[in-house]
Amino acid sequence: MTCLKQLVGVILLLTAGVACALEAPQVSVTAQCIEGTDSVLVQLQWPCVSGATQYQVYYRNPRSSTWVEDSLLATTTDCDYELRLRWRQLGRVRPSLARTFNVRAAIDEAAMVLVPAGQFVMGQNGVSTPEHQVTLTHNFYLGQYEVTNQEYLEALQWAWDRGLLTISAYGNFVCQYGQNLLNINDDISDWCEIRFDVDTQLFFLYAGTYADDIYGPGAAYPGGYDPAPHPVKSVTWYGAACYCDWRSQMVGLTPFYSGVWDQSAGHNPYLALGYRLPTEAEWEYAAQYSDERTYPWGEDTPDLSGANFRLNGYCVGWTTPVGSYPTGANALGLLDMAGNVGEWCNDRFAVYSSDAQVDPCGSDAGLNRLVRGGDWLCSTFYLRCAYREAQGPSSWHPRHGFRICRLATP
């Protein structure tokens, strides 16, 4: 018997209300004869889709006009699948090219950029020393933008609706695992742009009006503004880590943190399948990719056309919508790696060693976590790719935010 070969289409099903793709790449399907049996081994292979969290394999009888949801064959994180069909089943539909297969790629809507594994010199003389060689052995995805107020709000509401969160006694913090995550209902300085309505049990966005002559939301946007596309701020390290877990749960991935904050055995961030914060090494490697540049965009001295920071006065005096400075993009297309908000990293602070390292995770002891990238309040020096800042994980500030990271599985 000859082996059956055919091509079938892939429908890309985007989650979170994003429309399905109208045109899909082709999937190569081959059928291999198994000697001495009455079955054929069908091997489905398809191009891996960037950002896909899982693939769902369906089939339908060609006599049907629609896809039948209950015909799901498998859910897999790989880009291939095997099944056996008996010859009598195959023969019955042979005139219609056997069965028609459909692979749906579930994709989280977060914009992610692939960062290939590699080697670089971490640190910079006069900034963070000593310089040392670091090798990253895993490809990973890094958020193209900082997490926005809108994105955090949606995940926060999802977690609240499932009973994962509490509100502190004074109503000013969202809490999980006994940790403060986000400073909400700040009626004094309007640092946080997410509020909570006790009556409706809903979180909502709030455009602040606080002004201190030269900075604050009211000073920067006296006519008002939409806080949705601005990076979330006043979020603690715990609040950033918990967001990663919520996002993982929302799309069917295994959460990485789950209240475990150390790098204990079996808790290696580089091997986690769920969303997490980038390690300090991943962050710097991505920011300076791939020529160990001083700033994300290169060697040019920062100016107000490429980043939101302070230069002889405030550029804006508050955050700007993420991605507002395309000329400041790095070689991978990552935006706001310098300025806007400083970004929490996974690691605890550790003094650098001159020794070469492979997939470093920071210190196993201590408390402070790393913040990278500078912010809207900082001056030029702090925008360097190698600059590092240590902050307590419970601290919150209108200049601290984060972006998400995830292992790039084959």
Describe the structure.
This protein is mainly beta and 410 residues long. The protein is 11% helix and 28% strand. The protein is built from 5 helices and 22 strands. Strands 5-4-7-1-2-3-6 form a 7-stranded mixed β-sheet. Strand 15 (194-197) and strand 16 (202-205) form a beta hairpin. The longest helix is centred in the middle third of the chain and has 14 residues, at 237-250. The protein starts with a strand and ends with a strand. The model is unreliable at 1-27 and 89-99 (pLDDT under 50).
Relevant terms:
single chain, mainly beta, 7-stranded mixed sheet, 5 helices
Order of helices and strands: EEEEEEHEEEEEHEEEEEHHHEEEEEE
* Number of separate strands: 22
List the uncertain runs: 1-27, 89-99
**Shape category:** globular
How far from one another are the termini?
33 Å
Whole-number average pLDDT? 84
Helix fraction bin: 10-25%
Q: What is the count of helical runs?
A: 5
